[in-house]
Amino acid sequence: MKIDHTLYQGRPSDTRIPKEERCYDLLDSLGLEYWRVDHDHADTIEACEEVEGLLGCQICKNLLLTNRQQTQVYLLIMPGEKPFKTKILSKQIGSARLSFATPEQMLELLDITPGSVSILGLMNDHERQVRLLVDNDLKTPEFFGCHPCINTSSLRLKTADVFKVLLPAMHHEPGFVDLPWTVEE
Questions:
Q1: Rounded distance, CA 43 to CA 87, Å?
Q2: What is the C-alpha separation between 25 and 124, in angstroms, rounded?
Q3: Are the CB atoms for 130 and 75 separated by under 8 Å?
Q4: Who has the most CB within 10 Å: 1, 15, 17, 60?
Q5: Nearest to residue 38, comparing CAs of 165, 148, 166?
Q6: Per residue in 34-89, pLDDT tens?
Q7: 80-118 per-residue burial string, b: 16 or more CB within 10 A, e: under 16
Q8: What is the Cα–Cα distance from 95 to 93, expressed in whole angstroms?
C-alpha cells in the first residue's frame, strides 16, 4: 500500500469527493482538531497497520450489522485487533442472530461502501436508523482513529471530542458493550 508518510493537520487543500468533504465540513464546523494521513485503499485492519503508526493511534474496526429480521441496524466500533463473534454481541444486546449489512444497506443508511465504514458515516443517518454500539475498550485511549467515509484517508481525533462533541452533534448516543479479547471456538 502506498502511503504519503505525512501527517497533516486538518482538511486537505485539494478537492475530495463530496462525502469526504462533508466529514471535514462537520469536523471544522464543530471546531474539532484532527490529523490526517492519505494513502491507497485501506479496507482491512491489516492494511491500516502502517497508517496507524503514522497517526499515532489505532484505527477502529467498524462493522455494520443487522438482526435476522433486518428491522434493526447496528454500527459496532471496536479495537481493530480484537476478535468478533456475533453470538457474544447478540447476547449482550438482546438481539436475534446478527449478520453483516449488505453494501446496499451501507450506501442507503450511511452513504458508505464496504471497507469505508466509519463512525463519521452516522452524520448521514438523518432518520436515526442505525444504533451505535461501542466497545468499552475504546473509551480510554487518548485518540480515536477512523476513515472520513472513504478508505483512502485516515483521521486521528481526540477520543473525548468524539464522545462529547461529535456524537451529540450527529444525534447518536452510543451503547457500550464488553467484547472479549479471546474467543473460544
A1: 24
A2: 13
A3: yes
A4: 60
A5: 148
A6: 999 998 877 666 767 788 888 999 989 999 999 988 899 999 999 988 999 888 99
A7: bebeeeeeebbeebebeebeebeeebbeebbbbeebbbb
A8: 6
